[in-house]
Design brief:
Elements (H helix, E strand, L loop, with lengths): L1 E2 L10 E2 L11 E10 L2 H16 L5 E7 L3 E4 L11 H8 L3 E3 L7 E3 L3 E7 L9 H17 L6 E3 L2 E6 L5 E11 L2 E9 L19 E2 L2 H5 L5 H16 L1 E7 L1 H8 L8 H4 L12
Parallel strand pairs: 3-4, 3-14, 5-6, 11-13
Antiparallel strand pairs: 1-2, 4-8, 5-7, 8-12, 9-10, 10-11, 11-12
């Protein structure tokens, strides 16, 4: 099966799924989701869990959240991509956070679904480029469930819609350290788009930004798209969600010094390589 945008010379044909051998048992993994989580808390959670995953004390994990309004700067942010922290904060009242992820500046806010996979990369993909492509497949397939035809653009990681003047509907910015992935993707479900107008989104000049709600002219529930993303992610990475927990539960487990995050506790029933993209 292929997904292809028929009227865009820059579109890339996507073959899905691009998964491990289906004869293998699915990898056990944990799904963590909540309505809203401050960016700093999500970042701290990622770093703590990455250390546990690198030490093989837990399974892989996908964190799905929304953030309060925030601008984040990646490692390739240049002066021309934004007006500077003082002016941006003064114009918008939105805080700015510098991160270690790849890519340039972007905006996160309510109505945007953000996903942070924390995976041992070699269990799923031969390298960072294949990993980014797999994330794009998850997003493209999710959008297809809503009748939205989306595509890649060569040299511009993320997911786009439209032909002659494509608009970006999802961004990807990842980091790989100790062989473990952090950061991830952001899909515009129904966020306010005005905050993007104060920056050069992802450092791409003349970058148009859109959302699922804008394309469909309807109101969308982020929780519904969240469930679809989780299902598409599990299918394309050949995972099975052995437990679904809230961030607070995961934080509690990691704060207990006498208990490790062994699969039995977190999944009970009831030379580092880096890659930067945006």
């Amino acid at each position: 099966m292929t997904l292809h945008h028929p009227h865009n010379d820059d579109a890339t044909t996507v073959t899905v799924p691009e998964t491990p051998e289906q004869s293998e048992a699915p990898h056990p993994a944990t799904l963590v989701h909540c309505k809203t989580l401050p960016y700093e808390e999500a970042w701290n959670l990622q770093r703590a869990y990455r250390a546990e995953r690198a030490a093989d004390r837990c399974h892989d994990l996908l964190l799905l959240v929304e953030h309060p309004p925030v601008y984040t700067l990646g490692r390739t942010t240049q002066e021309g991509h934004w007006p500077g922290e003082d002016r941006l904060s003064r114009e918008t009242g939105i805080p700015v956070i510098r991160t270690e992820r790849g890519g340039s500046i972007t905006y996160h806010g309510p109505g945007q679904l953000v996903g942070y996979p924390i995976l041992r990369l070699t269990d799923y993909c031969p390298g960072p480029k294949a990993y980014v492509r797999r994330l794009e497949e998850v997003l493209i397939a999710t959008l297809a469930e809503w009748g939205i035809t989306a595509h890649r653009r060569e040299g511009l990681p993320g997911v786009w819609v439209g032909g002659d003047r494509p608009s970006k509907i999802a961004s990807i910015g990842v980091r790989i350290s100790q062989g473990i992935t952090t950061h991830g993707f952001a899909l515009n479900v129904c966020p306010e788009l005005e905050p993007f107008s104060h920056i050069v989104p992802c450092g791409i000049l003349d970058c148009r930004v859109t959302s699922m709600a804008a394309l469909l002219s309807t109101t969308l529930e982020v929780s519904v798209v969240q469930q679809q993303i989780a299902a598409q992610f599990a299918a394309r990475f050949h995972l099975t969600w052995t437990e679904t927990v809230a961030p607070e539960r995961l934080t509690t487990l990691m704060a207990q010094p006498d208990e490790t995050l062994l699969p039995s506790s977190i999944h009970a029933p009831s030379n580092p390589k880096e890659r930067s993209d945006d």
